[in-house]
Amino acid sequence: MATFFTTPMIVPYYGTAAFATILGLHGKRSGSLSTSGAIAAAVLGYAALGNPLAVFGVAMLTMYFAGSRATKVKAAHKATLEEYHATEASNGTIKAGGNRDAVQVLANGLFGAACAVAWRVLYSGEFADGKEWTGRLWMGVKGERWCAVDARWGWSKALILGAVAFWGACAGDTFASELGMLSTPPPVLITTLRTVPRGTNGGVSPWGLLVSLLGGLLVGTTTALSLAYENPECAGFSDSRWGLPWWALVVGVGGWSGLVGSLVDSFLGATVQQSLYSSSRLKIVHSRAKKDEDDVVANVPGSGFNLITNNGVNLVSAAGTAAFVVWWASPGL
What we know:
This protein has 333 residues and is mostly helical. Helices cover 52% and strands 5% of the residues. The chain has eleven helices and seven strands. It has helices spanning 2-6, 14-30, 35-49, 55-72, 75-79, 102-107, 110-123, 156-178, 206-230, 246-271, 310-329; strands at 87-88, 94-95, 188-189, 203-204, 276-278, 283-285, 297-299. Strands 6-5-7 form a three-stranded antiparallel beta sheet, with no helix packed on it. A two-stranded antiparallel ribbon has the order 1-2. The protein has a two-stranded antiparallel ribbon with strand order 3-4. α10 runs antiparallel to α11. The longest helix has 26 residues, at 246-271. Pfam families: DUF92.
């Protein structure tokens, strides 16, 4: 039993485990996470951060902090456009964020954390059991290292780009949702191009598409900077398929995923996710409960069917985008 709890797979990074726990507790204390959400955030945070390669944790933290900041931008104004996931204090101020549960946290972290765990098992060298270094491991017994995004080393490149794509897509979707609704021109439904109220699932605008691209580029850029610092063996390395510097590939995948993930999210939101509008409150609402007897809550014309929740749409769009990148970057393709 003592051996079990001291193996690398359980808790090799005690400081990281403490930091991930603090992040979960902070989310709980600030009201942005429920108890289950805080536990899920701590577990997924450790899965991403507990890795000899920091790029996974950097991508996750960039998405988390940038998304949190975007949520707070003009929160009171956004609350007048959509039945916002926020609480109203006694003085009338809006507390941005929401009591996100474990399902919401998993939708925005599970795929990326899985990429981090897979990379750690395959390439960290922590599970070599004292055997001779085979050249496959990033942290070999002789200390040799290779560029982690070099396709010649199997799945390392695919897993890193998959994590960048996943959290880039999450950041792009968050930016589109939180900042895109602040666009001056009203959004149009992606399937019909008809003008719809701000906050409608599936609504897009030029500003919303721009900020989704910027969200993905932010994740890609911070990840590339992190890898350049910790993996100098990548200096001068170019991707064999595209002939691009490795850092341009990482940044490009982040930006592409932010934009494409947001578009996929919008298409799903416009087809398989319900959008309701309240005539009394004059904003998008999340249930058919009426404010008063004169209130009329109805589907936004042309909007989707009530088949998938917002969490499901977020998971499918981000994980689907990232899975495509993993397939595209996988060995032999």
